[in-house]
Amino acid sequence: ADLPAPIPEPVAPVQTAAAPDAADPAALDGGIVAAAHADNGDSTGLRFGLGREALAEEIAAWDVDVSPDGTGLPVGTGNALNGEPLFEDNCAACHGSFAEGVGNWPKLAGGDGTLADDDPLKTVGSYWPYTSTIWDYVHRSMPFGAAQTLSDDDVYAIVAYILYSNDIIDDEFEVSNETLPTITLPNADGFIVDDRAETEYSIWRTEPCMENCKDSVEITMRATVLDVTPDEEGTEPAVDPAPAAAPAEAAAVDPEPEAEPAADPAAAPAEDTLDPELVAAGEKLFGKCKACHQIGEGAKNRVGPQLTDVVGRDIGAIEGFKYSRTMADMGGTWDEDILGAFLANPRSAVKGTKMAFAGLKKDEEIAAMIAYLKSVSD
Amino acid sequence: AGPDPLITEMQDWATGFGAGVDEVPYGLPIKFEDDVIRRNVEWLTADTISSINFTPIHALDGTITPQGCAFERHHSGAIELSKPDYRLMINGLVDKPLIFSYEDLERFPREQHVYFCECAANTGMEWAGAQLNGAQFTHGMIHNMEYTGVPLRTLLAEAGLDAAGDFKDKWVYVEGADASSNGRSIPMEKAMDDVLVAFKANGEALRKEHGYPARLVVPGWEGNMWVKWLRRIEVMDGPVESREETSKYTDTLADGTSRKWTWVMDAKSVVTSPSPQAPIKHGHGPLVITGMAWSGHGKITRVDVSKDGGITWETARLAAPGEDKALTRFYLDTTWNGEDMLLQSRAMDETGYVQPTKAQLRDVRGLNSIYHNNCIQTWHVKANGEAENVEVS
Q: Given A182, A198, A221, which residue is the final one in a domain?
């Protein structure tokens, strides 16, 4: 992506007479520090000659932020129609197929006119002031676990789908670097700059009361009534973090079933003797998977296939689930080695997998997860 | 009672060996302190990768927070970025865009300062009412460390700021190297004032979870701006209005309008002991009430404590004179004979700002602000010494 990043003309470093020799420790004494402090306004008075000039390619690679007026947007285009399947593949696991949100993950659509309500629903449509922020965030920080993997046109299409889900554009509107900054969001005028100095500080900067400050005091609310405080006994990590253990060398694992696996998450106990502690630890870890995968009796396919009996099941074998092509064509069965490699680094083990999860970092976690998956397999 | 066998009988530790000096080259606290840990509130967020945990402030004293139990907030997990792989870019409206290595940072004149870092959402769960039963959970999104680093203005001056022209309407955009790419816009005036690019905290290298090898320190301002794994600083002619400064970290008022750019953390305090996780276990007689106070506006000058829910107040003893934008420890050395207490603390800073009550805050802001809740906290201490998070009239 070519970016119209503002790249100033390189200027030769100014060698002033006052420039200290960075190699000379005496130059870095208190006098120079004091001079640096006094130097707020004069930007060229002090140079250490440290660092090197940033190359245009380097700035282009990192300087991808986008401002409200559209500065920083690369050339590109997309609409909600082509955004819908992209959103389904990349975003829906957390944000829902209609941007309505899944569980505790952010809702991106809805909430119109709720900002003054008791429980406002803040979404892109109801709250966000600038369209540039949507593009910038999707492009720079999403999808969760695979940031900066979307093409610019895909980002335009996904942004179009989010705007469409909020009834801000129709499904054929072409969102582009030209049109995006022209779209005004409903809450664009809903923000004021911090006014605490006027509305609060002026009232509260008074000599406080010390005696007879009120007639009586009553308890009006108790935290124990809600009972949402975590239990301290239950807060120990389920999996003992391995001190200084080498991270799983998952990247080298060959997904072919016949191949010798390079990483051996072999801490998993033998069949029939599942360690209940390990199973419990795995069940807790499975919280990471729940947004996409169901497991157990009556489990259905969601964003990911249901995982009951996954251990020993043929790979890509659940009817009615749309696997990635790699997964569908892979063959073999989910034995512990293949599962372990996949869990350690999904995208490396099965190139092109739709699973956005970044992987389990520790061998202990992989062993626990496999133990749990086995506990809900025949 | 007879003689104490711990005294009259020979104990193992008094006759055998303890651990040798090579047993633990870099130590953790002794096992008896294993409940002094960061804790997570599972229902708060969808996934621990983008979440926050809480400093065990109820179990700490003094002012410096050990890095190992200082709260963490990540938007895409704590990454491992080595010093050799570290690069810091300065670009935008500068005379010469620059790349610094980690080694370069250590060659600039450096400074040391103690500052608190508080998440804007600290105490945010308490807006609608008393909810979480423990100072760790209500007030634990804070830590206080001694930072060593290079003033941001020194690095900006190295790149040259003639190209920026008048600083008045200029901003710097700061950005992290992790996948969340957390970025915030900071007005040039603050950037040239006391912002640091820090690489040490409490004498040791930053921990991974606090942005190793280098993070931004933005004294007195909300924690989200203290960008970790800092990789880029861009001088700009306006704010980026990134996701973390528009959709988040903005404070919605009762009428539905929202405040933006609410960077400063106002004066605040909390009694850390006794508190729900730190009940009184020692019976009647002498009792030390302690807590901490801080202000993003400057130094804490005074802390008052009430035992009766705010009817009467006494001024607590500050362990040391307040320091600029750093935690201050306060003590009230008192006597307790089993009476019910509604314990509160109220901080004042050098600007004369007095920490408000929940009612005062709600009068101005309503219930939906989420961020910047610096209200006076109440603990109900009962006859058995246990304490509960309550709200009072």
A: A182
In this structure, the answer to whether residues A59 and A95 fall within a common structural domain is: no
* Nearest chain A Cα distance for residue B373, angstroms: 13
Residues A82, A174 within the same domain: yes
Nearest Cα residue in chain A from B101: A51
Q: Which domain holds residue A40?
A: 1-63
A334 and A280 co-located in one domain: yes
Cβ separation of B393 and A220 shorter than 8 Å? yes
CA distance B94 to chain A (A): 7
Question: In whole angstroms, what is the distance from residue A195 CA to residue B124 CA?
Answer: 19
Mean pLDDT, residues B258-262: 98
- Do A95 and A142 lie in one domain? The reply is yes
- Is residue A112 in a domain? yes
Are A115 and A87 members of one domain?
yes
Rounded Cα distance, A143 and B109, in Å = 40
Residue in B97, B311, B356 nearest the CB of A217:
B311
- Contacts of residues B39-45 at CB distance under 8 Å and 24 or more positions apart, as own/partner, are B39/A230, B39/A232, B39/A235, B39/B136, B39/B137, B39/B140, B40/A230, B40/A235, B41/A228, B41/A229, B41/A230, B41/B125, B41/B132, B41/B137, B42/A230, B43/A104, B43/A228, B44/B125, B45/A104
Q: Let me know whether A354 and A298 are in one domain.
A: yes
- The predicted model gives A157-178 an average pLDDT of 97
Would A189 be classed as within a structural domain?
no
- Give the whole-angstrom CA distance, residue B120 versus residue B33: 29
pLDDT (0 to 100) of residue B242: 97
Residues of A in contact with B276 (CB under 8 A): 223, 229
- CB pair distance less than 8 Å for B246 and A148: no
Query: What is the rounded distance in angstroms from the CA atom of residue A342 to the CA atom of residue B160?
Result: 49
Please determine, for residue A299, whether its predicted confidence score (pLDDT) is greater than 90: no
Using DSSP, state whether A351 is helix, strand or coil: coil
Between B289 and A254, where is the model more confident?
Answer: B289
Are residues A177 and A281 part of one domain? no
Residue of A nearest to B363 (CA): A200
**Pairing outcome for strands B258-260 and A191-193:** parallel
Note whether residue A232 is domain-resident. no
Residues in chain A, how many? 378
B149 touches chain A (CB under 8 A): no
**In this structure, is residue A226 part of a structural domain?**
no
pLDDT tens track for B327-362: 999 999 999 999 999 999 999 999 999 999 999 999
Q: What is the ipTM of this complex?
A: 0.94
Number of domains in chain A: 3
- Does A95 lie in the same domain as A42? no
- Amino acid type, A297: E
Q: Which structural domains are found in chain B, ordered by start?
A: 74-259 (3.90.420.10), 268-390 (2.60.40.650)
Choose from A55, A219, A225, A290 for mutation: most chain B CBs within 10 A: A219
Residues in chain B: 393
Strand B196-201 relative to strand B215-217, pairing: antiparallel
Specify the CATH number for the domain of residue A360. 1.10.760.10
